[in-house]
Prior knowledge:
By secondary structure, this protein is of the alpha+beta class. The protein is built from 2 helices and 6 strands.
Amino acid sequence: MKKIEAFIRHEAFDxxxxxxxxxxxxxxxxxxxxxxxxxxxxxxxxxxxxxxxxLRPKLKIECVVDDSEVEKVVDIILNNAKSGEVGDGKIFxxxxxxxxxxxxxxxxxxxLEPHLSQEQE
Length: 121
Ligand SMILES: Nc1ncnc2c1ncn2[C@@H]1O[C@H](COP(=O)(O)OP(=O)(O)OP(=O)(O)O)[C@@H](O)[C@H]1O
Ligand SMILES: [Mg+2]
C-alpha cells in the first residue's frame, strides 16, 4: 500500500476527483495548505511597499491505494494538474504499513477496495 500525497492548484481538484471516481478510487482526504516550492517568493506591491509572499495556497490530496493502483492515480493527477507553469505542484509516494477499518477491525489492502453497494455514511 502507498499513500499518494499531492500538492496541487485548487482548480485542478474537480477534474482529478472526477477521474479518480471514474476509475474506482473514491476515498481521499483533502486539505487547504500553504506552501513554498523552490522559488524564492513572489513579489507583490501594497501601497507602494514591496512585499515578498513566501507561502502560496495549495490543496493537498492524500490518497492511500494498493500498489497496483499507484500509476493510475499518479497519471490522473499529472494529466489534470500540469499547466506547464511554475507552481504546478508535486506528488510524493509514501509506503503505508497497514490500513485498518475502524468500524470492522478489518486490516490490509482489501480495506481500500471501493464498496459495491450504496451504503450511506
Ligand atoms: N519538497 C517539498 N516538501 C513538501 N512540500 C512541497 C515540496 N515541494 C513542493 N511542495 C509543496 O508543493 C507546492 C507547489 O510546489 P511547486 O510546484 O512550486 O514546486 P517546485 O519544486 O518549485 O516546482 P516548479 O519549479 O514547477 O514551481 C508548494 O507550495 C508546497 O506546498
Ligand atoms: Mg515552485
